[in-house]
Design brief:
Blueprint: H1 2-21, E1 24-31, H2 32-45, H3 52-70, E2 75-81, H4 85-91, H5 95-105, H6 111-114, H7 120-134, H8 139-161, E3 171-174, H9 176-201
Antiparallel strand pairs: 1-2, 1-3
Length: 207
């Protein structure tokens, strides 16, 4: 009976991981004033710097920046989910996705290839369910489940907690979806350890 309860808990955690994959993994906010000033600077030094268009653009942006400042500035916010990250990184269309991917993998080299591993997180959750089912009769399956979930959870949480977000080009915060994913894997790891401990305490059946 207790093994069935532990199996049910693994299933719940796996569902949380799959759900978390479609939730925001990273959120970013930027100052509208800084964005406007950046655009003004680009216009001043770009190839249009001597054109009448650039002068008009700079004038309009300066006016917009002043109005934003009068309002106390505005924060522009956006978010990306785990499902979105590989596509956005490969298309190089989101600094948020690139930023969170570089945090997860600690190295931007071959990031476009490494980021595809993100899809393994929900698949590994399904694998954990399969291993837990097999674990009803086979202790080795539970050990494999514990090692897999523990590796993902401990490695992921270490990278997230030691990440220096101040070095990124934009202000990024880790979203609930990624935390939910990592803590769900950590819970599966703990369940696996408890499962193994209970199996070891279980008296051997005599023939």
């Amino acid at each position: 009976m207790r093994k069935v309860i532990l199996l049910s808990l693994v299933v719940i955690c796996a569902i949380a991981i799959i759900h978390g994959f479609f939730m925001p993994w990273a959120k970013a906010s930027a100052s509208a004033t800084k964005v406007a000033k950046s655009l003004v600077s680009s216009a001043k030094i770009g190839f249009l710097k001597d054109s009448p268009f650039a002068g008009k653009l700079i004038k309009e942006f300066d006016r917009a920046t002043n109005k934003i400042s009068d309002l106390g500035d505005i924060r522009i916010k956006t978010a990306v989910s785990g499902y979105d990250i590989p596509t956005l990184v490969n298309n190089k269309t989101s600094q948020i996705a690139i930023g969170i991917a570089s945090i997860m993998f600690k190295d931007v080299k071959d990031l476009d290839k490494k980021v595809m591993l993100v899809y393994l997180l929900p698949l590994s959750a399904l694998l954990c369910i399969g291993l837990a089912i097999a674990g009803l009769k086979n202790k080795i399956a539970v050990i494999v489940m514990a090692v897999l979930s523990g590796g993902i959870a401990l490695g992921g949480l270490y990278n997230l907690m030691t990440a220096d977000l101040s070095n990124l080009n934009i202000q990024i915060s880790i979203g609930q979806g990624l935390w939910q994913t990592m803590y769900a894997y950590l819970t599966i790891f703990v369940i696996g350890i408890v499962w193994i401990a209970l199996d070891l305490k279980e008296p051997k059946k005599t023939k």
